[in-house]
Design a protein that fits this description.
The structure is a single chain. This protein is mainly α. 58% of the residues lie in helices and 0% in strands. It has five helices and no strands. Helix 1 packs antiparallel against helix 2 and helix 1 packs parallel to helix 3. Keywords: Chaperone. InterPro entries: SDH (IPR005631), SDH_sf (IPR036714). This is FAD assembly factor SdhE.
């Protein structure tokens, strides 16, 4: 089970690949952070945001987790998609309802 709530149907190959990678990072915590954001926004991202998100997916889990939770600046990733990703989780949008 991946945890995804979104089907890749209707997405282009690039977005399908990103959706898969967002849910298969290596640590479950980052799978949930990246995967939920991808589920919610992948279809609506601009091409520039898609390119930036592809780069963000390549960041090591401890670094990315630290940037999101501590507010530490993200060198070379100070992009609108990174700020949107951080805000998604800080606002609680990425938390599933129980």
């Amino acid at each position: 089970m991946t945890g995804t709530t979104r089907s890749s149907a209707g997405l282009d190959a690039r977005r399908r690949r990103i959706l898969y990678r967002a849910w298969h990072r290596g640590t479950r915590e980052m799978d949930l952070l990246m995967g939920r954001f991808a589920d919610a926004h992948i279809a609506d991202l601009s091409e520039e945001d898609v390119a930036d998100f592809e780069l963000l997916i390549e960041v090591e889990d401890p670094d990315l987790f630290g940037w999101i939770n501590s507010g530490t600046p993200a060198p070379a990733f100070d992009t609108p998609i990174f700020h949107r990703f951080r805000q998604f989780h800080l606002s609680g949008e990425g938390v599933p309802e129980i």
